[in-house]
Amino acid sequence: AQTVTQSQPEMSVQEAETVTLSCTYDTSESDYYLFWYKQPPSRQMILVIRQEAYKQQNATENRFSVNFQKAAKSFSLKISDSQLGDAAMYFCAYRGGNDMRFGAGTRLTVKP
Amino acid sequence: KAGVTQTPRYLIKTRGQQVTLSCSPISGHRSVSWYQQTPGQGLQFLFEYFSETQRNKGNFPGRFSGRQFSNSRSEMNVSTLELGDSALYLCASSLIGRGNEQFFGPGTRLTVL
Predict the structure, then answer these.
(1) What confidence tens digit (pLDDT) does each residue in A39-92 have?
(2) To the nearest whole percent, how much of chain B has pLDDT over 90?
(3) Tens digit of pLDDT for each residue in A25-50?
(4) Which residues in chain A are closer than 8 Å to B56, comparing Cβ atoms?
(5) Residues 6 or more apart whose Cβ sits within 8 Å of residue B63
(6) Buried b vs exposed e over B9-48: b needs ≥16 C-beta within 10 Å?
């Protein structure tokens, strides 16, 4: 079974600094997608960034970028110039075949 | 476009009862997925519907069921409620295709007493 592991239950970052959230996954599929979703407190989950396994180039969305290491099955999220509004639960997600799985989440705190 | 809406937002039931939750996807989205979110188990995939057909199913007992209507609206039903069914139930809609973004609703908070 495919699993998604986020080894950091909580992370903290100073405003304006950079933080990296880790995610590893296990799969036997060759074609799949990876996502990072953000769930702010008492607000709806929203997509931060997505990566297609066949694309070697790491995805980037403004201050958010990923480090996708397919061989290592690693998919980390880097947040640059952290802002107070980045405080949230971040979930790494895998979608391949008929499967959609989420990691346990990392709670990110941003200190002013 | 209006976002994904879920009703009701909060629900309190007792053990043994059944419950039906509703989800209205974003207009034009034909794929609807349901998830259970709990502090202990995190986000777990329940099922996905497309064009009124269940495409995928997570590892949940048969007490959990769902359906999708011709207008893409979806309902999920939980019968014979157990205390462990207390959770936030999230619905997400998307265009068809695994790489497409899922848009999540605000969830229904179910409490089983």
Answers:
(1) 998 788 999 999 999 988 999 999 999 999 999 999 999 999 999 999 999 999
(2) 83
(3) 999 888 899 999 999 987 889 999 99
(4) 98-100
(5) B78, B79, B80
(6) eeeebeeeeebebebbbbeebbbbbbbbbeeeebbbbbbb
Contact A98 B55 (CB under 8 A): yes
Extract the runs of DSSP E, i.e. beta strands, from A9-111. 10-14, 19-21, 24-26, 32-39, 46-52, 60-61, 64-69, 74-79, 88-96, 99-102, 106-111
Residue to test with chain B: of A42, A100, A107, most B Cβ within 10 A: A100
Q: Which residue of B has its CA nearest to A42?
A: B106
Pick the closest to residue B108 from B79, B80, B81, B86 (CA basis): B86
Q: How far is B42 from chain A (nearest CA, A)?
A: 5
CA B40 from centroid of its chain's CA atoms: 18
d(CA A84, CA A80): 12
